[in-house]
Specification:
Blueprint lengths: L1 H51 L6 H10 L4 E8 L4 E3 L2 H7 L18 E2 L3 E3 L3 E3 L1 E5 L3 E7 L1 H9 L7 E6 L5 E4 L13 H8 L4 E7 L2 E7 L8 E6 L1 H49 L17 H32 L4 H16 L3 H19 L5 E3 H19 L3 E6 L2 H4 L2 E3 L4 H12 L6 E10 L2 E8 L6 H12 L7 H6 L12 H12 L4 E7 L3 E9 L4
Parallel strand pairs: 14-16
Antiparallel strand pairs: 1-2, 1-7, 3-6, 4-5, 6-7, 8-9, 8-12, 10-11, 11-12, 13-15, 16-17, 17-19, 18-19
Helix pairs in contact: 1-6, 7-15, 8-9, 9-10
Length: 543
């Protein structure tokens, strides 16, 4: 009941405001029309002032003025005191003539002050109004194009429901909006024009044949003409109908909201619990450990705090697990490599090759200290390259200078941080799978380049290469993420005779993924008989 009472009051207020808005717009339209007519009169005076200062000797001058003038001119005349007439439409004037008798103006009585006629019919201009003024040699006459003048004034109307009507000082029709939204027969009914003339200036109502009209009557302008703006009652009723339908629609919507209020209230109460349950349900793996934003103010706040504390602990344990796995993977030095290295040193001792024994033992000590005595998971790339030299020295002692190592890494990149024992497994694979059992001496090159925010380290050999089918199996195995430690398969799919070759390529792939993310790892390219290229992609990390 309260709503419907307020709606009815608002409807009455809105109806009043709508009507007042239309009246204000009509009043503004009348004011603009008056201003336009005043401006038109001043423009005629300016034109005649120009004609007084110039000598008119030919109709061509009048035609040129009629063409270039911004005024709405149908025909210009100059009636000289000797009776000759010049016209901007001279040929037509010579045929049809124009004695201006319909204008009801005595040309002999026209003085130096601008005067104008009532509407009349002209042979050259049709229904028109004449503006007249004398100079020192004759009378200048301008017949206005009332159709164009009417279009200019009617063009000011930018709203439906308003019709314009302009009358002269004697209540003769000057302009009428024939294309308006409704036909108010002012121009066709003399009694109606006389009745309108009695309406006071400003806003008023007018009753005609049982219909009530709102109209605005202008003040007199410089021409003495009167502008009427008449409002269409049907348009106003249409606006009220739209307004009433809007209120009715609003009432129905609010009624529907009242019916649904209990459901909405229930949803508001249960929504936090459902949102919390949905967030908890998403935790199905270690990849979705997301805390919940705690915006609650009731008992759910304590529950969300406990949940977020549990998530924080799980995240912390997951990080510790990754660190332990990282360190475990780093510490996997193949026992076969140690066995073969010690056997080689034993063989050298039997032969009394003390210098080579010293070199091998020193390199092995450097390699083992590098593997076990570190406190950080990553090292400078320069340190990694130095321990690689120690490893290569041991392997060359074992195999008798089977290959040569070529390191081409810029000095600025050597300061970047990389995981420890990153390059040794890759070089080891090149030795065993590229050169082991070969006849000639091979070459292994190590290079590094920076690609934006990434560091790409490339280990390339000119060994025997990997067949395409085995290369595909190796790539698939490296990308598997099953958490297994079966590095033997990853390093033997290429057909190695020495299957336990240090940490293995899968070990490196897992280390890079655990530490940096899934977008980093190994990229392997190989061609049989040409060689193998292994690219290690990792982020740029400065120390």
């Amino acid at each position: 009941m309260l709503f419907f009472l307020l709606s009815w009051l608002n409807f009455r207020e809105s109806r009043t405001m709508l009507k007042q808005k239309m009246l204000d717009e009509a009043s503004l339209l009348v004011s603009k029309s008056n201003q336009y007519l005043d401006l038109y009169t001043e423009s005629v005076r300016s034109l005649f002032l120009y004609l007084q200062s110039d000598t008119i000797t030919a109709s061509g001058q009048l035609l040129a003025l009629a063409d270039i003038s911004p005024l709405i001119i149908e025909t210009l005349y100059f009636v000289a005191d000797d009776g000759s007439v010049l016209s901007s439409r001279q040929v037509e004037y010579d045929v049809m003539g124009n004695d201006f008798s319909q204008a009801d103006v005595d040309l002999g009585a026209v003085g130096s002050v601008l005067v104008w006629s009532e509407p009349y019919y002209s042979p050259l201009s049709g229904t028109t109004v004449a503006f007249l003024q004398r100079n020192d040699r004759g009378v200048m006459i301008l017949e206005a194009d009332l159709d164009v003048l009417g279009e200019k004034i009617v063009g000011l109307v930018d709203r439906r429901g308003i019709t314009l009507h302009v009358t002269s000082a004697r209540d003769a029709t000057i302009l009428y909006d024939w294309n308006g939204p409704f036909r108010f027969p002012v121009s066709e009914d003399e009694m109606l024009r006389r009745a309108l003339s009695t309406v006071p200036k400003g806003v008023s109502t007018f009753v005609w044949k049982g219909a009530v009209y709102d109209l605005i009557k202008s003040r007199a302008n410089s021409l003495g003409w009167t502008v009427y703006a008449i409002l269409d009652p049907a348009f106003f009723s249409e606006g009220l109908g739209v307004l009433s339908r809007g209120f009715a629609t609003l009432a129905l919507l609010l009624f529907a909201l009242l019916l649904l209020s209990s459901v909405v209230l229930s949803l508001i109460i249960t929504k936090p619990m459902r949102r919390l349950a949905l967030a908890m349900d998403q935790v199905r793996s270690l990849k979705h450990l997301t805390p919940i934003a705690n915006t609650y103010q009731d008992e759910l706040k304590s529950l969300v705090d406990a949940y977020n504390s549990m998530m924080g602990r799980i995240i912390s344990l997951t990080r510790e697990k990754n660190e332990y796995e990282w360190k475990m993977l780093q510490s996997q030095i193949g026992p076969h490599f140690l066995y073969n290295t010690l056997a080689c040193i034993h063989s050298l001792a039997k032969r009394g090759r003390i210098a080579e024994i010293t070199h091998a033992v020193g390199s092995l000590i450097h390699l083992l200290r590098y593997s076990f005595d570190r406190t950080s998971c990553d090292v400078a790339l320069d340190d990694e390259l130095r321990v690689l030299d120690s490893y290569v020295a041991i392997e060359n002692i074992r195999y008798g200078d089977l290959f040569a190592l070529d390191v081409r890494v810029p000095a600025d990149l050597r300061r970047l941080r990389v995981p420890a024992l990153l390059l040794q497994p890759v070089v080891e694979n090149s030795i065993f799978h590229g050169f082991s059992g070969g006849d000639g001496k091979g070459r292994i090159s190590v290079s590094a380049a920076r690609d934006g925010s990434r560091l790409v380290i490339t280990v390339e050999d000119d060994g025997r290469g990997i067949p395409p089918d085995k290369l595909d199996r190796l790539r698939r195995r490296l990308k598997e993420n099953d958490g297994s430690d079966n590095d033997v398969e990853a390093t033997t799919v290429v057909g190695s005779g020495d299957r336990m070759n240090a940490i293995g390529l899968r070990n490196i792939e897992r280390r890079l993924r655990v530490h940096y993310g899934e977008e980093y790892g190994l990229r392997i390219e190989s061609r049989p008989g040409v060689g193998t290229q292994v690219s290690l992609v990792l982020p740029v990390v400065t120390g």
